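tool_call predict_complex ligand=NAP
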Amino acid sequence: MSTVDEKSHVALVTGASRGIGRGIALEIARAGYDVAVNYASNRQAAVEVCAEIETLGRRAVPVGGNIGDATDRTRILDETTSKLGPISLLVNNAGIAPRVRADILDATEESFDDVVGTNLRGPYFLTQQCARRMLEWKRASDIKRARIVFITSMSAYTASTNRGDYCISKAGLSMAVKLFAARLAADGIGVYEIQPGIIRTDMTAKVTEKYDRLINDDGILPVPRWGTPEDVGLAVRAVAEGRFDYSTGIVIPVDGGFHLRVL
Ligand code: NAP
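tool_result ok
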């Protein structure tokens, strides 16, 4: 794939053992990337994703580690680099929903720390550390250009009062995209926000009936179907292939048109 950096085609995808991260890992492997498949605890699932990537002719390694933990973040980057080489694509995908969906008047500080620590502090500081390394690799001509993708959510701008912590984590992450995009643009590192809507994964499995109703009966999505991990993977792939190199900082909704205001 000519648009993938000819010097390095190594990607780290956080939370790639299942769901959207898996969909992203497979699509960017199809675009020519070798992939570090990060996971939190589900090693077997990560190993299976790696096997799928290898059948596509690319290298893949499972890399365990909690993105909410500073020591783990360093180890994830070290392990990816030592096993595959310098990273030219970081995809910040891993994230969690609150363990309990609680009204904003009742939700706990513990849940806030858990969700914000994983969904916002984790990718923010992983990106800080990865970007520093990318700059060094660029200076040493180990990579030519680099790209960083954040998987946020339509929850970055949609108020769900039964998961305020999640919405805040995604709104904060949306600003992290703008900050890193502005800081890294002149250095040839593009930074992008992908905003998924309602995607069928384990995360949404518990609320299937609710979303079925909203999509089929209430018509909340202009494109009347669930999104898939592949839908998100294809958007990340376009970024990974360099199709948006002059568009750093953009937001790409993958949401069946949810963001449209229709009268
Ligand atoms: P999922 O099915 O629950 O999968 C989550 C993935 O993240 C798994 O691979 C999991 O690893 C990993 N993970 C969880 N916590 C982690 C941590 N602390 N460190 C490292 N990895 C961790 O979730 P999903 O639906 O694919 O969501 C992926 C991302 O998209 C999340 O950021 C989510 O907020 C966002 N998103 C999802 C939707 C949706 O409708 N599904 C919509 C908008 C945005 P293990 O397998 O080891 O547990």
